[in-house]
Amino acid sequence: VQESSSYGPVSRQEVRRVRREGPRSTRSSSHASQSSLDELVTRPSPPSGGATAMQPVTLPPPPPPTSASASTPRLALQPTLSPSTSFLFPSLYSFPPFFTRQPNPQTWLSQLATWRTLVLAHARHTRTFSLDLSDAQCALEPFANPRLGRRLALETLRTIVEELVREGQAAWVDPQTKKAVWVYWKRPDEWASSIYAWVSETGQTNSVMTFYELVEGGDMAHTSEFYRLPLPLLRKALDLLVKQGKAQVLKGVGEDGDGVKFV
């Protein structure tokens, strides 16, 4: 007895075999495929035409991966202590591009803000009250790093100073020439508060002092923050105290002869 299929007649014996064993074309197909793949990888090609069979070749293992730091030196940025002033410079002070104005506008704005902060911090630490806009100034801290052999260009220094003036953190010594600035690591109103606080604490109210005595003379002046404050900055602070009714400026003979009475 025969049964029919789409490929022709099939005997009953074949039907029983298929039911018992499954189709020959699909039996252990995955195993056969894997075996064939293994043979292609591990077995030599059979000889043909009298040629010698090729032997399997063992490739050397790839070299271990290496980190970029092992082959390329990293730029180590860390705070730097000034040997002359003991000022602790930020990490960027060791980065050569920091001394060159960056062309990208956003990068320059960030760079400019960092320079403003650095100039004020360095001036406070070293008690620097004024800056000149000159090549000589560009060769000094904090505008130059001798270890790197880098320094600011004069035009870049001028841009930084102009930004300090615009932000009220500096003032032109002579607005006409614009060759130097007073650095306001303390603003005139802050100097006024410091002076009047010292006067009150030391019992100097209702007494008359010359400008020289206030910023140069006496043991108490040496312990005050405004010791050796330049006279133009002292006058700015005293003018504010006069407006607040806390001081009276008395004209004397000469600049150092002027005096002040605190009330």
UniProtKB/TrEMBL annotation:
GO terms for biological process: macroautophagy; protein transport to vacuole involved in ubiquitin-dependent protein catabolic process via the multivesicular body sorting pathway. InterPro entries: ESCRT-II_cplx_Vps25-sub (IPR008570), ESCRT-II_cplx_Vps25-sub_N (IPR014041), WH-like_DNA-bd_sf (IPR036388), WH_DNA-bd_sf (IPR036390). It is found in: Cytoplasm. It holds the Pfam family ESCRT-II. Residues 25-36, 67-77 have a biased composition (Low complexity). The keyword Transport applies. GO terms for cellular component: ESCRT II complex. Residues 1-77 are annotated as: Disordered. It comes from the Eukaryota. Keywords: Cytoplasm, Protein transport, Transport. One of its GO terms (molecular function) is structural molecule activity. The keyword Methyltransferase does not apply. Residues 13-24 have a biased composition (Basic and acidic residues). PANTHER family: VACUOLAR PROTEIN SORTING-ASSOCIATED PROTEIN VPS25, VACUOLAR PROTEIN-SORTING-ASSOCIATED PROTEIN 25. Belongs to the VPS25 family. This is Vacuolar protein-sorting-associated protein 25.
